[in-house]
Amino acid sequence: MPRELKKVAYRVYETRLRRQLRPSALPRHVAVLADGNRRWARANAPDLPLAAGYQAGASKLKQFVAWCDEIGIQVVTLWVLSTDNLRRDQNDELMPLLKVIVQLVRDLAAADDYRVMVVGDLGLLPDEIADSLRATVALTRRRPGMHVNVAVSYGGRHELADAVRSLLAEEAAKGTTLAELADNLEVDQISEHLYTRGQPDPDLIIRTSGEQRLSGFLMWQSAHSEFYFCEALWPDFRKVDFYRALRDYEQRERRYGA
Predict the structure, then answer these.
(1) Which of 17, 64, 156, 250 has its Cα between 20 and 30 A from that of 175?
(2) Catalytic status, residue 203
(3) Residue 229 · residue 207 · CB < 8 Å
(4) Do residues 50 and 4 lie in contact, with contact meaning Cβ atoms separated by under 8 Å?
């Protein structure tokens, strides 16, 4: 099939999928593990640094956020750097990736009326990177638009440890003993100390690149999430793939239990 004809067929299929989606059945919160940037770079730009893959991935993330906004998603969470990733080579991988992330957050903050929030332990990052991220997201704090979480220096176990530390410190300041806390602790008290406190839990979590695991992403919040795994490497993820994920989500019966 000629290339132009393929483009036309793709647009027709994309439009048909979009029309099939019911606004009332869409997820409120979509989270994505944007996996496969390095593999994409090795396959598509072998003569360039791995940063080419990070750049391509960041470009796709901005598109993805726009797709979510167009269709009426209320909250989007993008996992761009895990605590495990911090062990990568500083010069060849980590610093180039951090620079791409800083620019990504700036671009998201500059676009439309998104409320951008960084979730993760910024204390693990270089001071200049952490300060830049904090300053950028502060500019969006009062915006009324879609909430965009960017998970940077994020790990699910790390988040739970931070939540427990925060809860214990808060209760200690009130004079609560450990015995009293153990007797009266409620699930919601832990939720109130997560990075995403006050937000709805993700209804749909998408992971690309064919990997079928969560790797600790939103461990607490994903207890009742639906999962969609896609073979495409993240930079190759298309709008039609997004619509397929939403269609698949709509067709499921959410049981919230066993």
Answers:
(1) 156
(2) no
(3) yes
(4) no
Average pLDDT value over all residues in the chain = 92
What is the C-alpha separation between 156 and 202, in angstroms, rounded? Answer: 14
Read off the pLDDT of each residue in 227-248 and give the average, rounded to a whole number: 96
Q: Is 85 a catalytic residue?
A: yes
Q: Select the more confidently predicted residue: 256 or 7.
A: 7
Predicted confidence (pLDDT) per residue in 143-164, tens digit: 999 999 999 999 999 999 999 9
Residue 119's Cα: distance from chain center in Å? Answer: 9
Q: Which of 35, 69, 201, 203 is catalytic?
A: 35
Alpha helices in the chain (DSSP H): 3-20, 37-44, 51-71, 95-110, 127-138, 156-174, 178-184, 187-191, 239-251
The single residue of 44, 85, 107, 236 carrying the catalytic annotation is: 85
Helix (H) or strand (E) holding 32: strand 29-33
Q: Which residues contact 176 (CB under 8 A, 6 or more apart)?
A: none
Q: Indicate the burial class of 211 (C-beta count within 10 angstroms; 0-12, 13-18, 19 or more).
A: middle
User: pTM to 2 decimals?
Assistant: 0.92
The one-letter code for the residue type at 150 is V
With cut-offs at 50, 70 and 90, classify the pLDDT of residue 91: low
DSSP 200: P
